Amino acid sequence: MTTKNAASILTSLSLRRGSAAAPGAPQRKRRWTRWVIGALVLAGIAAFVLAPRPVEVAAASVVSTTPSQQDALLTASGYVVAQRRAAVASKATGRLVELKVREGSEVKRGELIARIDSSDMLAAIAAAQAALAQARVGVAQADASALQAAAGVRQAQVELGNAEAELVRAQGLKDSGFTSPQALDAVQRRVDAARSALASAQAGVASAVAARNQAEAGVVLAQAQIKVQEVNLNNTEIRAPFDGVVLNKNANVGDMITPFSSASGTSGAVVTMADMATLEVEADVSESKVALVKVDQPVEITLDAFPELRLRGSVSRIVPTVDRAKATVMTKVRFDQLDPRILPEMSAKVSLLARRPSDADLQAVLAVNPRALTQRGGKTVVLRITKDDSVEVIEVERLRRMGDMVELRSLPAMSGAMAADPAGQAGSSGGAANSTATGLAGGAASSAASGAVAANVGPVPSTSALKSGDRVVLDADAKLQAGMKVKIAAPGGGK
Prior knowledge:
By secondary structure, the chain is α+β, with helices and mostly antiparallel strands. The chain has four domains: 55-63 and 365-488, Beta Barrel (conserved putative lor/sdh protein from methanococcus maripaludis s2 fold); 69-83 and 275-362, Elongation Factor Tu (Ef-tu), domain 3 (Beta Barrel), CATH 2.40.30.170; 85-117 and 237-274, CATH 2.40.50.100; 120-235, Helix Hairpins (Orthogonal Bundle), CATH 1.10.287. 36% of the residues lie in helices and 28% in strands. It is built from six helices and 24 strands. Strands 1, 2, 18, 19, 20, 21, 22, 23 and 24 form a nine-stranded mixed sheet that branches. A six-stranded antiparallel barrel has the order 3-13-16-15-14-17. A five-stranded mixed sheet has the order 8-7-5-10-11. Residues 1-7, 9-22 and 414-461 have low confidence and may be disordered.
């Protein structure tokens, strides 16, 4: 037997031995797999049965309110409105060439806002000034003519006096026979000529006076034209009528501006501005409640934009008319002190109060349904529902009653022993109804609940202080402990 043959025989024997052992191995493997799967299934069932189920609870929300709300007679909604508001327009027609403000710009009374093209007015002023200069030249010329005419009158008067004196002498000589009638006639003609010259000189004076009066009228007319054009020039400058803030920009450089926007393709108001010192709230009060509103009545004002901001005010006036569509009466409320954050057209809520609130009355406090308060370890607590629907114990201090709510204040994080108070030591809230929790079903559920309580022994500090909007459990059962999962039966129920 060769070495090669021996190797073949050994290989054959090995294959046969392997073939004989193969049938039993898969059976053992399959039995082991079944045991593993069965164990996993049993473990899953046990985990499902023994796992604590979420406890169904009623819940309420912690709210932020103010003590002044306890004195509220009614609440109305409205908007912040500037009582002094203007659409600033131009008195002249022209193209806008300069705009010096934008939305939000603060302006003072008389401050330049915009300017329209004034070239026509400047040309008219130059023409009127030239006419004025010409009229003044005419006055000067008329004055010179008047002076000349007056000198002629004086000369004519002297000549007439001399001629009349010579006429008297000539008449005397004629009566004495020392002169001829012809000589007397010559003197008489001289007198007549002097009188004619005087009359002409006097007429020249009158003409010079008339010319001066006309020239003076031209001066007055030119001065009036200059004033008119200066007014027109001033009208090209648009200035702020009062101290305020620009709310809207209604035109741009290059737009045609008219006083009343009467022409197509033109703008009227260049900007809209408001006096921020005249901000008031215009609130709509139901006409059935208007009897509760009195002038100077104290109010609390809140703004939707800043809900944490509480402002004092008073009723300024009641508009004596009713809105038929809304059956409301407009009531205007002034601020006792304006805040720079207040802007026109902000939404506002007005609470009309029975008395004027103090500063402390306007400070926001936390309040909750009193059914949310319970006792654990001799301390007042609330059970807050976290984002993952588990329970967190928060120690609080109960303060004053506020209507159907109670003011409270959260205390520093509780100790673990306090947070994990056993069910046997937990007390219910004074006089409160029994827990709305359905509990866990069956004996297995009871065992799970006991296990959950036991599991919570140890430090469970609160993660943060109580705040507005937090959900808390109402009528908490003694078995409900920190860390347990809950299910809210009716969101917002019991508020």
